[in-house]
Amino acid sequence: NAGVTQTPKFQVLKTGQSMTLQCAQDMNHNSMYWYRQDPGMGLRLIYYSASEGTTDKGEVPNGYNVSRLNKREFSLRLESAAPSQTSVYFCASSEASGRRETQYFGPGTRLLVL
Amino acid sequence: AQSVSQHNHHVILSEAASLELGCNYSYGGTVNLFWYVQYPGQHLQLLLKYFSGDPLVKGIKGFEAEFIKSKFSFNLRKPSVQWSDTAEYFCAVNGRGSTLGRLYFGRGTQLTVWP
To answer: Given this model, what pLDDT does residue B12 score?
Structure first.
């Protein structure tokens, strides 16, 4: 039981390049989330998916797109990377069992945009 | 909108000292409350959580937190810290009346424990 896994662990991009961050969970969770973590800012929600087939914007969605490929996988795409997107990206999942929901996090992807 | 404030940005303690990290939130309804810990270079791990019931919640590694509804607070405590507690600590809130899964995080408190 690996929990939440993310690939890649590290990535360096040039401005304007595109890439997709992958996330998978093996806990049979319904909900999945993408956050970015910046120094002194805590974690901010980019996008989330309450269930397979649905996605919604979070607090900072600009410059990103997401795909909920199936129940296990939730990918985050940067179409044209910008230096402001240099950050650590965390994927999370939760069972979303009504009122008592706990999110579990992956190991993160460190992204540097030059 | 919900928000979470962690007033201590960086706390430095010696081993065996007592710890209290402040967390206040703004949300008018019923909340779920969490503390996560992030050790250097690692992902966030759940330290403890409060959904309902006894407002004093015990978590892993000797941590506890107290929910005081009248003060909108959920402070984290540990009676005696260890060097291995050096990490960043995040308070998070999920309002039950809001969209499922919208966790709001504080900016984090970096704890440094000197041996």
So the answer is: 97
